[in-house]
Amino acid sequence: MNFSLIDAERTRAGLSIAELSRRAGVAYSTYWFIREGKVKPQASTLKRYAEALQGRPRPKVKDVRARDPFICSTYRGYLALIADRLGFDPLRVVERPKARAFWRVRALALNATSVLHDVGAAELGRAIGESKQIVHWNLRQAEDMRDDPKIDALMREAARLIAEKDE
Fold this sequence. Notes:
Blueprint: H1 3-13, H2 17-24, H3 28-35, H4 43-53, H5 64-67, H6 69-85, H7 90-95, H8 103-117, H9 121-128, H10 132-145, H11 149-166
Helix pairs in contact: 1-4, 2-4, 6-8, 8-10, 9-10
């Protein structure tokens, strides 16, 4: 189905752009960008619009953290461990990992979770509610910090703890 057919069907059905977008689970602005020719629609987007026009509701996505508790809890564990080793209160860091004062702890915890558990940046971002770009930035920062022998020793200790757990 092409976009002009979807637009015509939307009009025939008496649906507003906002209502169709809501039903399809697509941003309102996406419809306008496609309609104005500023972007080429992806097949998956067209499919979502077509399904919404046919009355098939889009399934609700549950909270991502609930879908992958292992990644989220592993990340929080590393937050607490690294915070403790760097002299921060682990409970404060786990409760407020985005606080500016804890950026190093956060970057190192993301790095440990990613490297030691083979979790990609996109998957890790979804699990903790961040974009993959933010996760990538933190991973790069953590790699730069590994030049410090104290930080490198801390990361080796985290890897050793995981190795002991797996035995």
